[in-house]
Known about the structure:
Layout: E1 16-17, E2 55-57, E3 70-72, H1 76-79, E4 89-90, E5 93-94, H2 159-163, E6 239-240, H3 282-293, E7 295-301, E8 307-312, E9 334-340, H4 355-358, E10 365-371, H5 376-395, E11 410-416, H6 424-433, E12 444-445, E13 448-449, E14 452-463, E15 469-483, H7 488-504, E16 508-513, E17 517-518, H8 522-532, E18 536-545, H9 557-580, E19 590-594, H10 595-598, H11 607-616, H12 627-632, H13 636-645, E20 653-664, H14 670-693, H15 705-726, H16 728-744, H17 755-779, H18 786-814, H19 819-823, H20 832-854, H21 859-863, H22 865-885, E21 906-912, E22 915-923, H23 926-940, H24 953-984, H25 986-995, H26 1006-1034
Parallel strand pairs: 10-11, 10-16, 11-15, 12-21, 18-20
Antiparallel strand pairs: 1-15, 2-3, 4-5, 6-7, 7-22, 8-9, 9-14, 12-13, 14-15, 16-19, 17-20, 18-19, 21-22
Amino acid sequence: MSYDLFSVYDPPVQIVPVHDYDGTAQHQPQQAARRDSVRSTHSDVYSNAPSSPSFTLTQRTNWSAPHLALAPYQHQHQQHPSPSHPGPSGPSGPSPSYTSPHLDRSAERSTPHYGTRADTYNRSHLSTVNHHYEPPSPSHPQPVMSQIYPPQGRSPVSQPQLQASPSYHSHDPHYDQGYDNHGGGRSANTYPNTPPDEPDYTDYTAGYHGNDFADDYKSYDSHTHLPGAAAKEYDVGAIVPSQGYNNTPAPTGSLYGVNTYPPSPMMGGGQLPASPGFSGSSHWHAARENLLARRVVKQIPLFNGNLVMDVPVPRPVIPTSTGAVGAEPGEMEKMRYSAATCDPDDFLRRKFNLRPYLYGRRTELFVVMTMYNEDGHLFLRTLNAVIKNINHLNSRTRSKTWGVGAWKKVVVCIVADGRKVCDTRVLKILQLMGVYAEGVAKDTVAGKEVQAHIFEYTSQIIVSDTGEVGFGGTPVQYIFCLKEANKKKLNSHRWFFNAFGPQIKPNVCILLDVGTKPSGTSLYDLYKVFEKHKNVGGACGEIYADTGKWGRYLLNPLVAGQNFEYKMSNTLDKPFESVFGLISVLPGAFSAYRYAAVCNHPDGTGPLASYFHGELMNLPGAPPASIFDRNKFLAEDRILAFEIVTKKNAKWRLQYVKSAKASTDVPARVPEFISQRRRWLNGSIFASFYALYSFWRIWTSGHNIIRKLVLQFLTIYNLINLIFNWLSVSSFYLAFYFLIDSSISGAKDPFGGAGSEIFQIFNKVYIGIIFVVLICSLGNRPQGANFMYTLCILLFAACQGILLYCAGWTVYQTVPHTADGWRDWRGLFSNRTFLSLAMSLMATYGLYIISSLMYLDPWHMLTSFIQYLFLLPSYVNILLIYAFCNLHDVSWGTKGDNGNSKDLGQAKTVKKNGEEMAEVALPTRQEDVEALWQQARSEMRIPPKEVKEKRSAETKRSDSDRNFRTNVVLLFLGSNMLVIMLFTSSAFTDWLGKHFVSATESTFNPYLTAIFYSVLFLSVMRFIGCLLYLIFRFFGF
C-alpha cells in the first residue's frame, strides 16, 4: 500500500514506503519501487573504516525483494589501478577505493540557465564515487559540487595558493584553480558572467582538499560522554569508547587487523523492538551508544579553520533514482555538516558556504521555520504543510517560474533555538529524513566554540503524524541550523537573514513559526503578490485559530474567544491597513518579505539593522538599553513592518493576502494566554509609540506625495486608537456603571425592585476584581496563580452578563411594543437613549456581522461570538493590567542563554605536511548508522506520551511563597474593604434608620459609637496598667 498525505491537493503525491535495511518494505506497495542501480556512495566514509569490513549491496532490480544479499567490499583499485593516479598509501597500505559504473549520472544533468552566476556552471564528466582524480581539462572543466568528497587525489592547486587568491578572476579565462575541496568549493572562474554589483563570494568557501577523509587510516572523533576532568587524548585511528554504556568490549590487537568490533546485533535485517514501556527511547539510546562506542579518530583537512564534512546518509533515505528528480550527483547521498564557530554576521567573512550557492541555483522562496522546544507533532504539522506547498509549486506546469523542478528554487531553513531544549522527537524526525546525524557535531573547533551546527541535505522523505516514513513526490532542500545555545527568536532570524540570506539571495523570504500550518497553496499565494506588484515589500496572510476536528477546541471558551478575535482582525483591521500600504504588524508566525526590501543600505542602516538592534543591544559590551527599547522589541515584527515602509528613498508597501491562510495553535489555558498577551501588548504599545514619534520618516521615503499624505492620515488614526486603548480600563468601567445605573433609574426595574441592591453589589465586585488583579499582577506569575486569575475571569464574565442584560432591557424599554407605535418609527431617532445605544451596538456588533457576511466567512459569529463577549472585560482589564504591571519583564517566556553544553567533544587541530587538519571522531560503520535510523523509525510509530508542564522544585517554592504573600495582602486589604463596604452600604443605613435613628438622634451611628467605646476601654486598661506598675514599684515588687 502507499501513504498519500496529500490527497486533498491536486495533484496528489504518492508516498512510496521506505524499506527496511534488509530490503523488505514495512508495507508492500502495489507496485514495488525499482532501483536501476545500487548506490554505494556511502563508501566514501564507511568503506574507509579500518575497524570493520565494508559492504555494498549487490545489484538487484527489485528493491522490494525479501532480502538483499550483502557482498564483501572489493578493493577495485587494486584490480584496476589508475595509471595516472594510483592513490596515496597509508600506514597499512593503499586505501580502498571503489568505482561504480552505475553512479555516473553526470550526463543526465543539464546546466540551468537563469541568466545569473550559474551560466557557466558545469557538472559533467565526474562520477560521484570515482576515487581516481583527473585534473580538469579545457574540454571537461572541473565541476563545483558534482563530487562532494574528492578522492585521495589532490587538486593541482594547494591550499596556500587558494588563500592567496582573495577574489576570483572573472576577467582571466585561463584562471582556473580547480578548487575541489570538500565542502564543494568552486573554481575561480565558475561564474565569469557574475554581475559587477554582486559581492565576491569566491573567498567565502569552506571545505576539504582531497577525499572525504583524506587517507585510509584517517577517521573520525569526539570526546562525547568523556569525563571532563579526565578527558583522554586519543590518537588518529583510535577507537573512542562511549562512557554511557559499557556493553560493547573495546577491541584488542591491531586496529587494522582482524580483532575488531563484532558486527552490530541490530543489523542483518533485525532491530531491537520498540517498547512502549520505555516511552520509545530506551532502544534508540542503546543503538546510539552502540554507534558512539565505535567511532574512530580521523584527520580531516580544514579550510580557513572551518570544519565542514559531507556525511553519507542511511541507504533507506536515498530515493530510487536521484537523476529522475534532477538532483546533482551526490546531493541526495550526502548530508553536509558545517560547524559554525562565528557570529551570524561573520558567516561570510569566515568563508562558510551553503549548498544552494555552490550549486549555482536561483532561489525564489527561502522559507524559515523557527522553533524552541515544540514537540514532534507541531513540527510535522508545519513541515508537512510546507512540503505540500512545494509539491503544489511543482504542479504549476504553466507557470514561467514554477513547474517541474520548482523544488530547486525553494530552500527550507529550520532554525532550532538551543540544542539542549530541542525536542528529541524532532531530531529523530530529521534523522529519518537524512537531515540530521548523531555523533557528527562538535563543541569546539580549533579551540573556538561552535555557535551553530548546520546540516544541509536534499531529502525526499516524509514522516507522517503516525510515524510512517515514505518518499514524497518532490525533493526539498533543507538547511537545519541547530543553535548551540538558546538566544531567542531574533537571533534565529539573524542566522536566516544575515548568515544565510547573502549567499542564498532569495527573491522572497517566508517566515513561519513551528506550529503554524499554511494551507496547500499559501506559499504560492504570498509569492504571487510579490511577482505581480513590484513595489510590495512585505505581505501576510490570514492566521486563524486551530479549532480541531469538527471544531472540538471551540468547547473551550478561551479558544473560542481567540478564534473570534483572530477572525475579526483579518476581516476589519488588516484589510483596512492594507489599503493604506502600512500594516501595523506582519505576524512573525506567517509572513513574507521581499529580500531586497529588508536589506540594509550600503552604510549599514536599514530595516534589518533596526530589526536586529533588539538583540544586539543586549549583547555584552553594548551600551545599556532603556526599558522603552527593550519593550519595543518584544513586538519586533511591528518594527520591521514600519522600517520597510519608511525605508529611506524607497517606496515599498505592505499588503494583506486574504487567500493565503494558515492555522496556528492558540493557548488553551489561562496562564499561557496571559503570558503570551503580556508580551504582545507591551511590545505593540511601545512599538506604536515608536512609530508615532518617528512619523517624520514617512517624508524621507521614496513614496509619492499622495501616498505620504495617506500614511500621515493613518498615523493620526493610530494615535486616536492608542489613546482609546490607554483609557480602555476606565472607559469599560464607566460604561458598566452608567448603563446599569440608567437601567434601574427608570419607571420599571429590570430586577423586580432589587436593582439598586444588585447594582451596589456588582459595582463593588467589579472594583474588587480590579483590585485583586492588580495585586496578583504585581507579585505572581500566571502559572503560579492559575486559580486566582481564572476566578477573576469568571467574575468579570458575570459582570458582563449583568451589563448585557441591562443594555438589552434599556433597548427593549425604548422601542414601541405595539404595531401602532412602530408606524412612527422615525420618532425612535428622537429618543437619545435609543439612538446612543442603537448606534453603539451597530458600530460594533452590527459591523461584525455585516463584514463577516461580506467576506463569506460568518461561522465564527455562530460559534465564538458569545464566548468573546463574556471574555471582553478580561481582555480589557486583566490583560492590560498584567501587562503594565510587568513592564520590567522583557523576556519571551523562555529561558535565556544557557551557554554551550560541552558534551559533544572537540575538533583538535594539528599540522601535517603544512596543512591544517582537524582530529575528530565520527561513525565509520554504515551498519551502525542504519541501525540507529531503523530504531528511530520504529520508535516514531509509538505515540508520544502527553507530558504535562512541570515546574522545578525551586520554581514551585517561589510560586508558593508568592501566593502566600499575595493571599496575606488580599486578606489584609480585603477585610478592610469589606468593613468599609458593609458600613457604607445603603442596606446598612436603611437598617439603622429603622432600628436606632430617631428624629433627634440623626447623627447617631452604632459603628462609630462602638469604635469610641472600644478606644475608651483600651485607653482605660492601659492607664490602669501603668498605675498598678507605679504602685507595685513603690512597695518593692
